[in-house]
Design brief:
With 258 residues, the protein is mainly beta. A hairpin with a 4-residue loop joins strand 7 and strand 8. The strands form 6 sheets. Strands 13, 16, 17, 19, 20 and 21 form a 6-stranded antiparallel sheet that branches. Strands 11-12-18-14-15 form a 5-stranded antiparallel sheet, with no helix packed on it. 0% of the residues lie in helices and 41% in strands.
């Protein structure tokens, strides 16, 4: 029998699952599958008949796994789920009789749902700078992107806004002077297509970086901002990423987020 609910942890429903529920042998061969239904998450071990039988030789060990596919909306994040297997009805070949092993369902380790996440922060190693006007490809900002532990993420777009107010008010619309060729770089690698005439609008300057900016789970990458500053450039310039200014996709879940 098997069940996808355990009284010791938070319960879930069949809506958290997609595809089929499978019981697999150690070699990856499925010996039972069924579409998720309420009966499989009712805190009772449900007796099932395997679709194919198999023999375990004396002195050897076979591992059975309960495999499910989580729906992208499963959760909420932080919810713990377990599966349980038990009441294995089997035949002893030499004595030609039947026995039951594991009369009490044995719960597996709890699995905790997490969602893909990406956290941008200002790079502490790049503080406010005083730079000379007239420089080509001047580094004007730096941010760090840290992926959560759930899965790798692929960054799709990055918005970079430019502010030139002396009071550095974020989110307003500014008319820029002498700032061109806005670029993003990861180390020495160009990320996205440079923007020849960047805007000072609050909506930001959009860089498409799909396929060239991946961040592994729990990894931090540094993204630097560069621009050409003419001799007529604004006295103050500060790049920033507006709220929800980065879109990304979870590598395994394929779930999009900002």
């Amino acid at each position: 029998c098997f069940d996808l609910d355990n009284a010791a942890v938070a319960a879930f429903t069949e809506a958290d699952l997609t595809g089929t529920v499978r019981v697999r042998r150690s070699a990856g061969v499925s010996v039972y599958s069924v579409t998720p239904a309420a009966v499989h998450v009712d805190a009772a071990c449900d007796q099932v008949t395997l679709s194919s039988y198999f023999t375990i030789k004396a002195g050897t060990t076979e591992t059975l796994s309960l495999v499910v596919d989580y729906a992208s909306a499963a959760g909420p994040a932080g919810t713990s789920h377990t599966g349980a297997l038990g009441s294995v009805y089997y035949k002893r070949l030499d004595t030609n009789d039947f026995q039951t092993a594991g009369a009490v369902a044995i719960g597996a380790n709890a699995l905790t749902i997490q969602v893909a996440s990406l956290t941008p922060t200002s790079n502490p190693s790049f503080a406010s700078q005083t730079i000379v006007r007239g420089g080509a490809e001047s580094k004007i900002g730096s941010v760090q992107l840290q992926a959560g532990s759930a899965e790798n993420v692929s960054v799709q777009t990055v918005l970079v806004s430019l502010d030139n107010d002396t009071v550095q008010t974020l989110g307003d619309n500014d008319t820029l002077a002498g700032i061109s060729n806005l670029k993003l770089k990861k180390g020495d690698t160009l990320v996205g297509v440079p923007i020849g005439s960047p805007s000072g609008d609050a909506s930001g300057n959009s860089f498409t970086v799909s396929g060239v900016l991946d961040v592994n789970a729990s990894e931090t990458v540094t993204l630097d901002v560069y621009a050409d500053l003419a001799t007529t450039a604004d006295a103050t310039v500060r790049p920033f990423i507006p709220a929800n200014g980065i879109t990304f996709v979870g590598a395994s879940s394929n779930t999009s987020a900002n």
